[in-house]
Amino acid sequence: MKKFLKVSSIIIIIFIIILGIIGINIKSFGNKSKPHKSDCVIVLGCSVYGKTPSPFLVERVKEGLKLVKEGYADYIIVSGGKGPGEDISEAEAMKRYLLKKGLKENQIIKEDKSLTTMDNLTNSKKVMNEKGFNSTIIVSNKFHLKRASLMAKKVDLDASYSGVYVKEYESHETYGFLREIPAVIKFYILRN
Question: Which CATH architecture has domain 2-190?
Fold first, then answer.
C-alpha cells in the first residue's frame, strides 16, 4: 500500500509540474508575441450576443484594425461562423464593426464557416491561398495564441501573433487561460 501511495504521489506531482510548464508556456507566448509586417491579419472569432460582438471579440477586432492602421497589413480576414445564440456570424459582426470604424469594405475578407479555432485557421489559409497572401498576423486573446500557433503550424501558415488582454474582464481572462491548459494538452495528443 505504501508503494502504491508513493507511486501515486509521484505521478500527481509530475502531472502538476507538466500543467505548470504548459501554463507558463501559454502565458509567456502570449506576452512575448509581436506582429511582423504581413499580407493580412486574421482575427479569430469569439462570441456574439445576438448581433453584438462580445467584449473579447471587440478587443480582437480593435487590435486587427490597429495593425492595419499602423501599416502591418492591408487586409483583415475576419473568421468565425454562427454559433448558438448568435443572430449573425462572428465574421459578419466583425465586418460591421470594422466598417463603422472606417475600414474600407475591400480590405475586409469574411470567412464565416468556422466553428473552432482549427476551422478558423484552415479556412483562413484557403482564403489566403485564393488571394495570393503568403503571411499573416493572427489576433486573439493572449491566452489563446499558443494553441493558435500550434494549429497554424499544422496548417502551414506563415504567421506572427498579436494578443489582447481585456483587463475589465479579468475573471473571464483567467477562466480562458485555465481552460487553455487542457486544450493545449488535447492538441498535443490529438493534433486538432
Answer: 3-Layer(aba) Sandwich (3.40)
